[in-house]
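To whoever is on call:

I kicked off a structure prediction for a single chain this morning and the downstream step that reads the tokens threw a length-mismatch warning. I double-checked the sequence; it's 502 residues and nothing unusual in it as far as I can see. Pasting both halves so you can look.
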Amino acid sequence: MQNLRALQFERLPGCIAIKNSRQQVAAVTFLQLQARSKVLGSKVLARPGKGPRQLQRGLEYLDKYYTPKGEHHVGEMTSGSNSMTRKVQQMQAFFGLRVTGKLDYSTMGVMKRPRCGVPDVANYRLFPGEPKWKKNTLTYRVTKYTSSLSHADVDKAVEMGLKAWSAAAPLNFVKATSGEADIMISFQSGDHGDSYPFDGPRGTLAHAFAPGEGLGGDTHFDNAEKWTMGMNGFNLFTVAAHEFGHALGLAHSADPSALMYPTYRYQHPYGFHLPKDDVKGIQALYGSRLSGSKVPQVPHPPLSKPPTPADPDHCDATFSFDAVTMLGKELLFFKDRLFWRRQAQLTSSVQPLSITSSFPQLMSNVDAAYEVADRGVAYFFKGPHYWTTRGFQMQGSPRAIADFGFPRNVLQIDAAVYLRDEKKTLFFVGDDYYSYDEAKRKMEKDFPKSIEDEFSGISGRIDAAVEVNGHIYFFSGPKAYKYDKEKEDVVNIVKSSSWVGC
């Protein structure tokens, strides 16, 4: 069990004491950045010329997640200080990165990933001993809903998130519709009164407080996020189940397969079972569920077919693609459960098809795709797995994207593009990209590199990419950028939807 002990709290000098209308000191406190106008030297920055933005992001991250109570804030440290280096090393060790003590590409890549707002340094103490509930039946109540989902969907995601834990430990959860509950759940925006303001889309997704009176157990979600019940946006069940682990007394785990790993990774809600590391953690606090006792089950999908969601309006001004690839002489464009196929040289309107009609194993929500035409093989990526096809024929079972040589913290690909002349595939992950040598079947050294530094004119997250007639087309939200490799610059920008006849 890796770092999955119960959260422990200690009120130390310099700890921020916070009270709200419920008159309870917060069990989890986040340190605010107090960066001085000092510049850290090359001992910390792997690429000092990168500029202050990388340094600022690193300082904020380390102050928020790796500075125990009573210590100086990282931003107050002197240039190239050993203390700053130790913080970076601690973070790198936690995430299984190469421990350099520098803010290198891999380290910054992890820092940019959406994550839980609870710190990774689990040595806070506020209550004597391990914080845990002294009873096994707990009440919960949703007091403020999100506009992203119906109330029924929110209630279902919350119920399933709690049942994931009660299936492994002797805990029971009862929904309250009024008054004070043990676990108060709400969707908040920005500064919401507990001194831990949310930061807008794709940063801190949620946070929760350790067991106890008042704020203890309460769970807050950032309402600025796109909450969903599926794979697009942020799956509410996935985040809720993680936060409820904190509300029950668990710290973060350094095991990437654990639900309590700090950064977001989609978990399929139906039939979900806690990974072993999480089971060990919750049973260390509450024991195991007795044999013969009724175990709450995470529900499976209903037998009746659910209503078919409305097809996305691909001519809408905000329309974007999930993935784009060549397949033979055709271009394929993927969005949610649909895809469009058209001849590379034609721009007439085309009708969408169901992904399952041609790629039954993919189902929906393809993250990235590319084809190595010389081998006649295409690769499709979803989460930590990939599938191969020859034409439209699926080849075997899914495999782990780790086969390509990604570091273990890379659990999802945003986009991929095969460069025919170079025989290289570029993988885009957050703000960085990797280069894979298809001839040697090996990831190239000195990667990842910054997208911003290497591809002038591209702005925003890259959703999809494809090479056509020697140019790379980058799709970012509703825009498609035509990139000239020789000029090393963008030469045209059009609507993404124009590629399917809009």
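Update from on-call: the warning came from a stale cache, not from the record. Cleared it. Sanity check on the structure: The longest strand covers residues 137-144.
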